Amino acid sequence: MSGGNEAPIGVFDSGIGGLTVVRALRRLLPSESVVYLGDTARVPYGTKSPETVIRYSLNNARFLLGRGVKMLVVACNTASSTALGAMREHFTGIPVIGMVEPGAQAAVLASKSGSIGVIGTRATIESRSYERALRQFGGPSVIMDGEPCPLFVSLAEEGIVDGPIVDLVARRYLERLVSRLPDMDTLILGCTHYPLLSSAIHATVEDLAGHEVTLIDSGESAARVVSDVLDSRGIRSTRNDRGELTVYVTDTSHIREVGSRFLGEELGDIRKVDI
Ligand code: DGL
Questions:
Q1: pTM above the 0.85 mark?
Q2: Are residues 91 and 225 in the same domain?
C-alpha cells in the first residue's frame, strides 16, 4: 500500500479549502510530495449528515490509497470530526491524521485560563469532536464551548477576508461565544477556510473579550503532528529538493483562482477525476 519514504502524503478535503493545510505542510515539510484531492463536486460537507460524510471520506481515502500514498491527512475538519474513526478502522496499514486532535492539543498547551473556544462548521460543532479531544488532552478542568460560523466559508471562497462585512459577521458569531466564555484566552480555527480570515477573527475576538486571545490554526498543528509521525515511522522523504504537489478535484468549476488563494501560491496542473 505504502511506497516507502518517497511516496507522497495523501491529503483530502471536501473542496479546495484544505489547500490551507497543504500550505502549512509544504512550509514545514518542503521535501514531501503531496497528492491532494478536493471533493469539489460534493462540497460542502459541513451541512451534511455524519453517514454521508463518512461515505464520502472513505471514497476519497480509497482514491488516494490508489495513488500509493504513505500517509493520509484529513484536512477537512468536518470529515475529521465525523469520519476519522471509520477511516482508521478501514485503513489500518497507514497513519491517518485528522485536524481535531492536533488542534485540541495545541490549544490545551496554549491556554492559561483553561477556557477554550472552537469555531467550525455546524457538523463539526454538533459532533462535539473538539470537546472530546480537549477533555482527552486537558482533563475535566478545561472549560470549552463551540460556535458554528457557516458564513465564514462563503466569505473565504469569495475572497472577502477583511473589511466591514467580515467584521460584522465575525462580531455576530463571536459575541455569542465570548458571552458564554468570558475568560476564553484560546480560540481554535476548526475549519479549513478560517485561516484566511484570521486577522479579522483575531481583532474581533480580542475586542469583544477585552484581553489577548491566541488563535490556533488546526492545519499548522496537524502539520507538526505529520512531521512527528514521519519520524516515528521512519518514512520521512530524504530528497533535497522541493516535493511535488499533485491536485485532483471532482469538479473544476472556479477552482484555479480560489485554490491559489488558499494555497498561497499559483496552482499548477489540476486534474479532474470521477471517484
Ligand atoms: N472543509 C470544511 C471543514 O473544514 C469546510 C467546508 C465544508 O463545509 O465542506 O469543515
A1: yes
A2: yes
